[in-house]
């Protein structure tokens, strides 16, 4: 590790981890009507950070729930600029990250987009279709602007690859829970804890499991090994079915399950 | 400089290409690249593929000189008859290559996307022949307009899933096939149908179609004693065009023309973007959302284009004009009436350009890749022409 201080997201996670806390990051699709309400409810219910999804026309890492949320947000007129403007006015006291597909960054331009994130008060970015080998230009711009780039690690990665992924990760390492796209499953895949354990053995960057962590019970199982969890489809299904209030209730339920 | 050689180590053709895939798929793309490189250098694999192309697909495909239409247009018009291949299009070249490769890698299952259904039918065919399980993703809109091909795929033992997301056409079928692959990557090979997607696909698929250009070059030597003045093909993702271009790209003075539909002219707008694993010209809005293409032909209904085409366009080696649906309908009928050949609607784009530009090509020899036959489009044309 270099002498450089950690970014706001990673510093916050490291501090909480040192205090024995597990980390909870709900995902909310930006621009979906009611999303700001849902985000504040999630924070109030104990989220340690929130991942704001910037909807994309072709979300290849997302299953039906987040696809639908993205489509509804796009149909409601959402775009990256409008979402970032709304994010700036959220006034919540936890770090915010964006989850977006690479063409959104590519189209805007790396430096320009990184500066737009800074202006909106966003700490970090997760770009699921930007693997390590292609991440150079974005990471350079993000580093220069102080935006933390969360790297994803997949169960298919051979042992030699994981240290390189971790070395490039800022904020946290996103440990992909299973082979597949986002969405709820009836049980936590064995790959989830297996990969988290492999990562924990080689890095001190916080390791959070996401994709396929589908309920409070599975979150509790995941944090036996990992430092925390990302909750996406399970949050968004509740929001699509029952509205923003349901998000707060669910986040509180997961919070209670992982605080043990 | 030799064009259409191997891309760079990062899968680039100039500044186009690359491998923009989720982490989960990176090892699979690396494994595929290695397996293809190994197989392509292996005389046993090459011989096996060659035998299949000859004894099963019916290669080499012939050249047909269109004397009636040629004299009407004032040009010498020659067709490369990929429509006469088994399954009715050029798609079989790539699919037999990838299916053999999948078996060599120990994969038991392939997934494929399809637009018009030609790649889906070819994939289902190769899967039946080589004993692989096969699932084809097809946009719901295309399932409707290409009912015949859907039935053919099912008849061949493949599962066909109608994709309901997004524009419900080819681009969404690609998304869904990629989602399947992310979940099944250990047992499944993604049999991508065009010169697009993450490295090594654009390179590998072009190599599997190189046989079109190699044959056409030799056949032109015999028929016309040299090379044509112009080589024309339709372009969606661009595999048939890459195939025939490969035989002539190093022949100075031979014009290479890739014809796009007016409603799907990725090169015409010249804005690079990243989707489906590659950086290439892409139709997108001011925020980078991928736009829906609109074309009468399901096979060209795609907002992007293979990265090597973007490269050839950017250096000026190939030209990418577009034609309207009305011009395509006219081109479709023109070939049927003058030559007794019903072309696929995709190829009718190339015919539409040739008949529009013929006044500027008087006396020239034009080689067109007739990449598929039109049987699949007859029902749709019945509705349009009444």
Structure, explained:
The complex is a heterodimer of chains A (260) and B (386). Chain A has helices at residues 8-18, 35-44, 64-75, 80-88, 102-108, 110-119, 136-145, 162-168, 190-200, 216-222, 233-242, 244-258; strands at residues 23-29, 50-53, 96-99, 124-126, 148-153, 173-176, 207-210, 228-231. Chain A is an alpha/beta fold. Chain A has an eight-stranded parallel barrel, surrounded by eight helices. The radius of gyration of chain A is 16 Å and the shape is globular. Chain B is of the alpha/beta class. Chain B is built from 15 helices and 15 strands. Chain B has helices at 26-40, 43-55, 67-73, 91-104, 118-130, 140-145, 147-155, 170-184, 201-224, 239-245, 266-269, 307-314, 325-339, 345-357, 378-385; strands at residues 12-13, 16-20, 63-65, 76-81, 109-114, 133-139, 159-163, 188-190, 230-234, 255-261, 272-275, 277-281, 318-319, 322-323, 365-370. In chain B, the strands form three sheets. In chain B, strands 3, 4, 9, 10, 13, 14 and 15 form a seven-stranded mixed beta sheet that branches. Chain B has a four-stranded antiparallel beta sheet with strand order 1-2-12-11. Chain B has a four-stranded parallel beta sheet with strand order 7-6-5-8, sandwiched between helices. The mean pLDDT of chain B is 96. The interface between A and B is large, with 41 and 38 residues.
The rounded Rg of chain B comes to: 19 Å
Q: Give the strand line-up of the largest sheet of chain A.
A: 1-2-3-4-5-6-7-8
Query: What is the β-strand count of chain B?
Result: 15
The major beta sheet of chain B can be summarized as: 7 strands, mixed
Strand content of chain B: 15-25%
- Average pLDDT level of chain A: 96
Shape of chain A: globular
Q: Quickly count the helices of chain A.
A: 12
Please state the structural category of chain B: alpha/beta
Q: Name the average pLDDT of chain B.
A: 96
The H/E string of chain B reads: EEHHEHEHEHEHHEHEHEHEHEEHEEHHEH
Percentage of residues assigned to helices of chain A: 40-55%
Strand-pairing-aware structural class of chain A: alpha/beta
Proportion in helices of chain B = 40-55%
